[in-house]
Amino acid sequence: MTVEVPIRSHDASTEAILPKAQFDLIPFILVLGLMGFAWLAIGSASSWLTLTVAGLTMGLIIFVIASGLTLVFGLMDVLNFGHGVFIALGAFVATSVMTYAGQAGMGGVVSLFIAMLIAMAAAAAVGWVFERLIIRPVYGLHLKQILITMGGMIIGEELIKLTWGPLQIALPLPEALRGSWLIAEAAIEKYRLLASIIGLLVFGALTLTLTRTKLGLLIRAGVQDRSMVEALGYRINRLFVAVFVAGSALAGLGGVLWGFYQQSVTAQIGTQVNVLIFIVIIIGGLGSTLGCFIGALLVGLMANYAGFLEPKIALFSNIAVMVAILLWRPQGLYPVSDR
Amino acid sequence: MYNPVCKPVYKPLIRLCGVHTHIGAYHILHGIDFEIPEGEVTVLLGRNGAGKTTTLRSMMGLCPASEGKIFFRDTAMEAMPTAEIARLGIAYVPESMGIFSDLTVQENMLLAARQARRAQDLDPERLNWIFSLFPALRKFWLFPAGKLSGGQKQMLAIARAMIEPRVLILIDEPSKGLAPSMVNNLIEALLALKAQRTSLLLVEQNFRMASALGDRVAVMDDGRIVFRGAMADLAADESLQQRLLGLSLGGHGS
User: Fold this and answer.
1) What is the 3-state secondary structure (H, E, C) of B215-233?
2) Is the pLDDT score of B161 beyond 90?
3) Model ipTM?
């Protein structure tokens, strides 16, 4: 006997009784609204376009960095304040790779991609060690997690200074990616476009993994109720290590992108970005990848618009966004149920 | 220490010997001796706070026993991680049902079928059987499980335990908060499982459901087993029922 697994609900009446999970578009509208508001406030189309592209790029880079952190938090309730160290590591590995590549006479875009891959591998390896040594002993103990991961971050920063020196290191873009295109009188930097494409690819790949694979299903289920996932026979600790390592690799990639975005790298890069990524994952709803994506775009856009319109408020504009969103949706833009 | 309970004449599926469980500073289980025979329905009765849920959670390794032994056939499982216990073929339906509300009914079922990677891998015969018992699940197959009603969620929770052949299913208060018609539906489904000789351990406060399904019964109070025997004996012996009802079932008996 066989039965077809219903892949579509045909019964129209059931849809009347139980609406399909309506996709919540309001956060998307919020992003568009912010862009529209900025359009009115800035007044010049070309400035607006340049700032918007810069903001979206910054947002997408922050998303790459923060996506791993939100899953790590969602899955295991682990507050990892040491995430920034993987960003710094990625960026510094990129400076070394670019220097070697330059000496080997390989200065093109290829070297940038090689730098990304090596940075991801290095951050993943360090992430694995970080999880074993620092995170594992403090599962379930929030206060200790905060203290020990911050301690881990300080040690990491010092080790980076020991390896690469305490001074700022320039990270110039390969020749081919310098400069910008003029589109409708707005200057669009080539690198920003590339970084945006990479950010979108990461978002696409993460979304596909989370929604179309069993692994993703397990991660989403684990974020909601990890003991039930265990009771169904899955070893969630291994899944967590995998997510942690992948998240660290993404932070390493984000570090490279961020380093090239700033065109210089300091050991404090992680600490600087840490504040932004925590704002982003709180705005998005802890554990939510889509929320993290929208939150990152909001923060990136806001930083650029505010920096242009009123540099004085740029310093706290992101905190203001967070406060406003939490007053409206206290659990973030896309709250994960059952948490 | 010689403990006669731990030397049973027949081979039970699960055997708890002197199990003590602490949750934080609280001592919840005070030396539970108890066994689950294979292929039968064992009902665990007792008032709220007697330790029934903790007994189940200790068996699943979710609240690991601090003392004592738990055997699955001849394997000691008290120190096994939860995932390993589940892989022995033990399914757990918690009182909270443990439904992943952001996931669809299909995705919930897919997770419960550990071998299946995609919906197409689900065993069609079992699925058909489940749909015949719980038609609502077919209807709402692609809906987020969080949108189901309480009764439908309970059906999904039990269906998850049925999607693969299991040796033992632990079910915590399935009838809680359900309408009487829903309870009948549930009894039917559990009888279907029983007919397949799946061993069940049922925590239940509804005596009608307990007596309709149970072969064996154990009554708990204050973290201890205070009565063990055949369900038929308890159902027939009114004075015993009275004593245990007064002790454990409160106003729930009927």
Assistant:
1) CEEEEEECCEEEEEEEHHH
2) yes
3) 0.88
* Cβ under 8 Å to A: B residues 148-177: 148, 160
Higher pLDDT: A51 or A315? It is A51
The residue with tokens 């189309």 is A45
Reported as a single tens digit per residue, the pLDDT across B219-250 is 998 999 999 999 988 888 888 888 876 644 44
Q: What does the pLDDT average to over A253-274?
A: 91
Residue A10 has pLDDT above 50, yes or no: no
pTM of this prediction? Answer: 0.83
Cα–Cα distance, B113 to B156 (Å, whole number):
13
Within a domain: A5: no
Domain span at A273? 47-171+181-322
The pLDDT of A328-338, averaged and rounded, is 85
B94: helix, strand or coil = coil
The answer to whether position A223 is within a domain reads: yes
Answer yes or no: are the C-beta atoms of A144 and A138 closer than 8 Å.
yes
The CB-side HSE value for B231 (13 A sphere, CA atoms) comes to 20
- Determine phi and psi for B21, rounding to 5 degrees: -130, 135
Which residues in chain B are contacts of A220 at CB distance < 8 A?
100, 102-103
A249: tokens are 């690799």
pLDDT of residue A30: 93
The alpha-carbon gap from B34 to the nearest alpha carbon of chain A, in Å, equals 22
Backbone angles phi, psi at B29, to 5 degrees: -100, 130
Dihedral sign for Cα B28, B31, B32, B35, please: positive
Nearest CA in chain B to A10: B139
Q: Which tokens hold the place of A269? A: 């890069």
pLDDT given at position B184: 87
Domain count, chain A: 1
Specify if A240 maps to a domain.
yes
Question: Do A225 and B128 lie within an 8 Å CB cutoff?
Answer: no
- State residue A218's pLDDT score: 93
Residue A338 located in a structural domain? no
Nearest CA to CA, how far is B60 from chain A (Å)?
7
Q: How far is it, in rounded angstroms, from Cα A290 to Cα A333? A: 9
CATH (domain of A100): 1.10.3470
Q: Is the dihedral of CA A114, A117, A118, A120 positive or negative?
A: positive
Q: To which H or E segment does residue B150 belong?
A: helix B150-162
Tokens of B160: 């998850």
- Which of B110, B138, B148 has its CB closest to that of A6? B138
Average pLDDT over residues B157-164: 93
Contact criterion met (CB < 8 Å) for B139 and A8: no
Q: Using CA atoms, how far apart are residues A104 and A96, in angstroms rounded to an integer?
A: 12
**pLDDT band for position B87 (cuts 50, 70, 90):** very high
Q: Do A231 and B60 touch (CB under 8 A)?
A: yes
Cα angle at A268 between A262 and A270, to 5 degrees? 80
Q: List chain B residues with CB under 8 Å of A219.
A: none
